[in-house]
Fold Alcohol dehydrogenase.
Amino acid sequence: MEKNQKIVLANRPAAWVEESNFRLEESPIPEPGANQVLVRNRWLSLDPYMRGRMSEAKSYAKSVEIGEVMVGGTAGEVVKSNHPKFAVGDTVVGAMGWQTWAVADGAALQKVDASAVPLSAYLGVLGMPGVTAWVGLMDICAPKAGETVVVTAASGAVGSVVGQLAKIHGARAVGIAGGAEKCRYVVEELGFDACIDYKAGNLRGDLKEATPKGIDCLFENVGGEIFDTLLTRMNPFSRIAVCGLIAQYNSAPYPMQNIGAVLINRIRMQGFIVSDDLSRWPPALKELAGHVASGRIKYRESVADGLAAAPAAFISLLKGGNFGKQLVKLT
Amino acid sequence: MEKNQKIVLANRPAAWVEESNFRLEESPIPEPGANQVLVRNRWLSLDPYMRGRMSEAKSYAKSVEIGEVMVGGTAGEVVKSNHPKFAVGDTVVGAMGWQTWAVADGAALQKVDASAVPLSAYLGVLGMPGVTAWVGLMDICAPKAGETVVVTAASGAVGSVVGQLAKIHGARAVGIAGGAEKCRYVVEELGFDACIDYKAGNLRGDLKEATPKGIDCLFENVGGEIFDTLLTRMNPFSRIAVCGLIAQYNSAPYPMQNIGAVLINRIRMQGFIVSDDLSRWPPALKELAGHVASGRIKYRESVADGLAAAPAAFISLLKGGNFGKQLVKLT
């Protein structure tokens, strides 16, 4: 008899996440109750925020408890339904965690159309990462035509959308990514104006060259030394959308030297979490869906095969080993 | 024959400002040209921003050149006028620098009424520091009733107004100041709810006690280790108005450890300079003048006697030696 496979948090990481922090378990496939739906998960999304949920430290969301299934966004198919809005065979997205089967309340699921767009896109460019890019760029940075937008982790699920949206809205888009191959992709495939390979070891000089008029909007995903260096290029009245600080999720915080730029250049710096304001999702998804359908926004996926591969893929993501949106193909 | 006394920048400070960075000079009293006014300066304002003007480093305003008169806000009396808006005997404020006499274009001066309010108040609570407090608190922090506002350098020209305005608008006001005497003044005279003496050596513990519900608004004048510690008490969706970072004007930047709070708590941090938006001055001064006239906003002045005392008073200000608005009485 088929079982539900799930990955639980075995123990909390001390610094870098290790595969031993996770444990693969099996349990019976659950039965849906009233107004519930049984879903066979096809895709699991891996995202940097999950690192925070593995810690006990107070953050914006509750930690995963030891022994609990790891949290995560998923896409799958309805197998049984006790909810009037869902029928067997419907494709749905939700937050069903690192497991192959799940029961969820109908209210916690969203039906999506996987005929025109692949189902996995609803975990990336048409899901949380895409909306994150839109909210940070359009609501916080609000770049004007001709301004310079810089985004870190530019080839990733969020960063790739930020730069393409910036171009669509008439800004100069400059990416920062790790490695020549990612930078080539960012410029040649995604159409950014420039990309800096921070691993090339000349960040400060390369940055000056790529941002001759300084930076008007910084969409920050990485933090640490790169963020601190970027602060030195910010223009008067520039904006910083702080979306992620992945460089310090696994280590002591980087000691920032250049926060004085906030005063000198009257910078507005705003941290945000895409789930804070759900009213922004519909306008974001509307614009993104149009650009994806027309081919103006492109996306790329890194796919790990099978649930058992999720821990290694997640660790690689935290180290920048992914190229585009990191997914796990479950079945 | 009476001469103009002026203090010029003799050389740039290497770290801490020294009296030897300044030089007292004399020159003939200038003659006003067309549309100009000759003013005998009575009061000179000393303010932390002046430290920035002594450096060559790029900042929001032009540096003072070596040999030039130090910049500064002044209040005085019109002695000769070639401008239709000003008559001999009018009291005026302007930015006439560290000198006893000055010629200025009429358009660069503002006539003030020194009958109901002392002339010196127009350099403090009813001048740049007061408007700075109002803009940072009302426009950037925008505290709601019941929220907690923390302000550093709480007994100073800006900080004292921030806390009193916060109280008027229904917030809890917590000051941070250096020394028991300043803290006593902040609570007993100015009516703050609490004050932390950072020199007492228990900032973290005292802060927790004084902000049981965390911090919703931080008005930051100081920077450095105090700022970094305050970041750990910020609430979700809190605001930080970055007005000054005096702790690092004379030394290497403090390495900030807690910038991650901006993301975790979705903080909006905004640097500002009060001269960026002159349209905010009239509403600010209108509210402040009402509260000063009614006695709801109190202020205190530290007065140095004579222009020659200005360098030592300025150095003391940078080290927190002033108590209230630092002025120099010129004649």
